[in-house]
């Protein structure tokens, strides 16, 4: 059996197999049904390893052992294998999400927080200023900063950005509203867009000629982006600053724009 090395390499990655598993599965697919000896000869995998590889593939649903003697193996159709892997991946993801969701109730999580507090306390405010690369990382940090607010959240953005992450902002604003956190949102789009988004998000949104993206938490903590929102998400950059002196000044200007 002659199979291009590029195909073996790609299938190995797609199906999370090792080299021997990929070669044995391909050999069996080319024959449909074969004995371990035949598969070893076709695939080029040492016969002493073929039995272990077939057992591994059988457990993962790539092959089926045929009843009778001599023992032979049947290749499972690729589409069936793909569906099985998809179901397994979904189940693993759900289990992982459940595990992570329950972490906050564990003693390990409390210990992690204690370690973080111990490490953060000695750090000065200017040392907590850093850059954030990638739009997904920016959203994660923005959400964390907003949800940690106790008094106020000031946000400037665009209708496009708020709409693209509607669920995230809506959930976050709902949590803040329950804690009576003062939420003010401004967008650089027109009044109609502001009214539409205001209804969807459940907070007051005002239209102002300010084309910027930043969030201010309690007038002490700030995240602002240095790129427009039409760049590729991998090249989106932001700066996270924990400086009451600087952030309070920007919050003052935000208040002026909000009132005018």
The helix content, as a percent range, equals 40-55%
Low-confidence stretches: none
Structural class: alpha+beta
Largest sheet: 7 strands, mixed
Number of domains: 2
Silhouette: elongated
CATH topology of the largest domain: Endonuclease, Chain A
Number of helices: 11
What is the straight-line distance between the termini?
76 Å
Task: State Rg.
Answer: 28 Å
Q: Assign the CATH class of the largest domain.
A: Alpha Beta
Number of strands: 10
Taking all residues together, what is the mean pLDDT?
87
What strand line-up does the widest sheet have?
A: 4-10-9-8-5-6-7
CATH architecture of the largest domain: 2-Layer Sandwich
Proportion of residues in β-strands: 15-25%
Assign the CATH superfamily of the largest domain. Endonuclease Chain A
Q: What's the structural blueprint in terms of helices and strands?
A:
Elements: H1 5-15, H2 19-31, E1 33-35, H3 36-43, H4 47-59, E2 63-66, E3 72-75, H5 78-101, H6 107-120, E4 130-133, H7 135-147, E5 152-157, H8 159-164, H9 166-178, E6 182-187, H10 191-201, E7 205-207, E8 214-217, E9 221-225, E10 237-242, H11 244-259
Parallel strand pairs: 5-6, 6-7
Antiparallel strand pairs: 1-3, 2-3, 4-10, 5-8, 8-9, 9-10
Helix pairs in contact: 1-2, 2-3, 2-4, 3-4
Which keywords apply here?
260 residues, alpha+beta, Arc Repressor Mutant, subunit A, Endonuclease, Chain A, 2 domains, 7-stranded mixed beta sheet, 3-stranded antiparallel beta sheet, 11 helices, 55% helix, elongated
Account of the protein in words:
- With 260 residues, the protein is α+β, with helices and mostly antiparallel strands.
- The chain folds into two domains: 5-84, Arc Repressor Mutant, subunit A; 128-259, Endonuclease, Chain A, CATH 3.30.870.
- It has helices at 5-15, 19-31, 36-43, 47-59, 78-101, 107-120, 135-147, 159-164, 166-178, 191-201, 244-259, and strands at residues 33-35, 63-66, 72-75, 130-133, 152-157, 182-187, 205-207, 214-217, 221-225, 237-242.
- The N and C termini lie far apart (76 Å).
- 22% of the residues are buried.
- A seven-stranded mixed beta sheet has the order 4-10-9-8-5-6-7, sandwiched between helices. A three-stranded antiparallel beta sheet has the order 1-3-2.
